[in-house]
Amino acid sequence: PLYQKAEYLKSVPTLDLCPEEIVYEVAFAGRSNAGKSSALNVITSQKSLARTSKTPGRTQLINFFPVDETRALVDLPGYGFAKVNINTKRAWEAGLSEYVEKREQLKGLILLMDCRIPPTEIDLQMLDWTAEIGLPVHVLLTKADKLKKGPAKAQLMQLKKMLKAEYPHASAQLFSSLKKDGLDQVWQQLDTWMEY
Ligand code: GTP
Ligand code: MG
């Protein structure tokens, strides 16, 4: 309900242009097409707050969606999109790591991964960067509606085992934007990070 108030504020290409008035923010990261924008829309109960697309690489800027005067949700550019050239790709990755590592307002990272696709190199890199700076991560295994309950749970268990062993700063859950499954758990995580 709190997150229903989210409104689009602006999109910026780099850290130095991020809004200063925000005190608490939570960013949504993940490979292109993982379902970041869809998740944001469901979490805020809005149909088209964040743009979703069948074309990967749609979200190319850091997009700010304040919920109130001091709190914001942030949609980050999807990474790992093969169809952009290597320099563009490197620039994105540099911008992304700078934001994640230096943005003081950032209290937590929601990392989205398609439940059918194993973590990519950049997913693991995100987990490494955040571990280094002690930024907590909550992984959403997205598109859970694409798997049957048993296999979905097995994916979650496998991921949790890996996180426990290698990335204890990260937690995980199943999520489906399509079915709106897992919403309460995400809201709870956001509330904690935003100090609601
Ligand atoms: P970029 O902005 O390119 O980084 O992508 P994104 O991570 O924001 O993905 P987006 O939310 O645009 O979703 C990509 C595609 O996956 C769209 O076709 C969505 O409709 C679909 N999708 C997203 N979430 C779900 C889900 O929970 N279930 C199913 N079945 N499809 C989903
Ligand atoms: Mg997007």
TrEMBL record:
> Which keywords are on file for this protein?
Cell cycle, Cell division, GTP-binding, Magnesium, Metal-binding, Nucleotide-binding, Septation
Q: Which GO terms describe its cellular component?
A: cytosol
Q: Which GO molecular function terms does the record list?
A: GTP binding; metal ion binding
Q: Which cofactor does it need?
A: Mg(2+)
The Gene Ontology biological process annotation of the record reads: division septum assembly
Any idea where the EngB-type G domain is? Answer: 22-196
Instruction: Tell me the function of this protein.
Output: Necessary for normal cell division and for the maintenance of normal septation.
- Family from the record: Belongs to the TRAFAC class TrmE-Era-EngA-EngB-Septin-like GTPase superfamily. EngB GTPase family.
Protein name listed in UniProt:
Probable GTP-binding protein EngB
Q: Which residues of the full protein are shown?
A: 4 to 199 of 232
